[in-house]
Known about the structure:
Elements: H1 2-21, E1 27-31, E2 36-45, E3 48-53, E4 57-62, E5 66-79, E6 84-91, E7 96-99, E8 113-115, E9 119-122, E10 133-145, E11 151-163, E12 167-180, E13 183-198, E14 203-214, E15 219-235, E16 239-254, E17 260-275, E18 279-290, E19 297-308, E20 313-324, E21 334-345
Antiparallel strand pairs: 1-2, 1-5, 2-3, 3-4, 5-6, 5-9, 6-7, 7-8, 10-11, 10-21, 11-12, 12-13, 13-14, 14-15, 15-16, 16-17, 17-18, 18-19, 19-20, 20-21
Amino acid sequence: xxxxxFLALTVLLSVLNMVLSTPAHAATVVMxxxxxxxxxxxxxxxxxxxxxxxxxxEIKLPWTAVSELISDAPLRLQTEDERVISSxxxxxxxxxxxxxxxxxxxxxxxxxxxxxxxxVAINAPVIDPYEYHWRGKANVGLNSTSGNSDTTRxxxxxxxxxxxxxxxxxxxVDFNRGSDNDLTTVDNWTAYGSxxxxxxxxxxxxxxxxxxxxxxxxxxxxxxxxxxxGYQFFxxxxxxxxxxxxxxxxxxxxxxxxxxxxxxFQFGLDYEHQWFDWLRFFHNLQALTSVEDIDDFxxxxxxxxxxxxxENFLATFQVNFDYDNSPSPGAExxxxxxxxxxxxSW
Length: 346
């Protein structure tokens, strides 16, 4: 009798220990190779499922290799068609999961099963599409020599972007000044701004304004105001690529030559690519071509490499190339500046 009570108590304590040691809201993840992982689902973002296991801690699993996800706690599932569904999940057919909530209890659920491939995020932070975000950078470069020759080179540039899912505002400036034995060798500045209104996720209405001065080309001011269509191929920290095309009104005021006004085709390209974890390549191109005379065109490019010195500080080597196929009499067609700068990004 005493032995029976002892055995019963032992079994009861074992069961109680199992219950208490099971993490609350545990989920079971079954991989395609049959492996099973138990823990709390933290999130699934960018194709990576993060699971908190009681003994192993955080475990990262590739979402494409998951065949089943069973969770007794509601998960916030974001689908490829931009629905957000909150539901516990159970075993479904191959490659899918069962939504345990009733179809009437959660808006947007029209089926009881959901393909795993249709889920793009789980418990991801909710982002307000109307909330604006800042990003930008500012750079300064200075080079000075003395002795047999006295040379000075000064460069500063900056750009700021304010954007949400529907609107994007960009403003920027660059300034270059240089002398060699008191003779001016570089004297130009550029200021620009744009407003993009996104018509869809990729397509946007592009509006631009820019001002350009170049003392050596006897260009007092070139003003260009344009509008057109743009397409955003990629927009992430690792890769950004967009193009624009449209028409611009252009006015050029020269020091000696008479002023000119004309309508021009405009084309733009903005490309930025993260190489490895420590190097970023960028290339920006802006072109204006007269509608009446295709030989009357100007080209502006900024290309280079950025290297992060610390979290927000960066070093940049860039080549600025400005080309005017129809400059004022006696002026050179091209300006090339090689600049090494230190800057701050946010």
